[in-house]
């Protein structure tokens, strides 16, 4: 090649190798293929064996017809276009906006100025104050707005925290398996060590302290500097909602082992069985019961507008709260978030609306409640219906739905299916999910995308999609698949 031949500076072999190493199955090969099918169908192609693609691979509620909550969108519309506020009569009498919508928009605009302007790096102070009040009411313990950082969804908060936690390639983070792949992917990008610990499927995917200890001890013996433990509660992909004793045990172990706790609590309102218990509440409770002992247990807990009944993941709003952190470390975290300037301001406003929704007696409350409960009950009903379908399917085992937006059944496939998968260079669960997509248009994620106990196979599906037709098509596909590979 002559020295003048033009060539690009970047190629697949010279970019950051840690980006190449990261895996994110939620939007992997199956998702890409499902989008191709979607565009064929939109283009009028009719030789596919299905007439719609169901994206059950990702917790993206409004893509699957979940309606936005009216109060939220009405306030946001005024924040985006404040001149509407000078047409109060039209808003109230023609568009059905209630007075509290206008009042909230005016209040937020006073705090924010314009949603088109950068805010403080850690978020608008008045919004952090609202979050602190919400946390106090939720947990029964004080919260301080100085410890709250708004983020572009919880993902950006996780990214910040992992950047600060991982000092070098020997830094290790305990990550549940199965897990939402944000954690393993971010650790791969940071070139830090993921220290996997298995969740206990037999106990509804709870945390098993003996397993956590074993994973930690093994990593330490290998010389890894284990610094933190990630807990996803309620779980993704498992849907598990942790009982109080599991949470206490994790905090106690973190105290003994000097581990920072990263509590990913984005599904905190998606709980069907029992109640959501926050790590903050439990940590403060333990501090109260044992003066001094837990005062240095560092906890970062995350929340988001993406999930729950809000489902506004496109708006990229979230926050994290730091508990018991060293002020000098907090100052560095502040500096780190300031490098990205601030979280999207409209997303921050949505966080405010989420944590401070209309109260009983306020004009927008009844509709808000009706919409919120409607979404909650719809999700619960769909989760139960899907679970019932799995119960009928040969070789499929699935614990009853507890929370979040997912079911994660075990699939027992025959050696013949495993052989057919190997011939295509796929794992058996990937093969099963690919066959399901090709036959039904339903896109789910193979368990291997989240990690699973060796020798076990799963897939994850959301229960967000409306209707029952797609569930029927999974049952039919499964029967045929099992018959073909018997
Ligand atoms: C456990 C968990 N954490 C974080 C996220 C990211 O959420 P966000 O949209 O707030 O970035 C998700 C998204 O699915 C999730 O499941």
What do these coordinates show?
The protein is built from 17 helices and 14 strands. The chain has helices spanning 17-21, 29-42, 70-80, 88-94, 99-112, 125-139, 153-165, 182-190, 209-221, 244-257, 279-289, 327-339, 345-355, 365-392, 415-423, 428-440, 469-484, and strands at 54-55, 148-151, 171-177, 193-198, 225-232, 260-264, 299-304, 318-323, 396-397, 406-407, 410-411, 442-443, 445-446, 459-462. Strands 2-8-7-6-5-3-4 form a seven-stranded mixed sheet, sandwiched between helices. A three-stranded antiparallel sheet has the order 10-14-13. A two-stranded parallel sheet has the order 1-12. The protein is globular. The N and C termini lie far apart (55 Å). The mean pLDDT is 93. The structure holds pyridoxal-5'-phosphate (PLP). Pyridoxal-5'-phosphate binds at residues 59, 153-155, 180, 182, 232, 236, 264, 266, 304, 306, 313, 318. Pyridoxal-5'-phosphate binds next to helix 7.
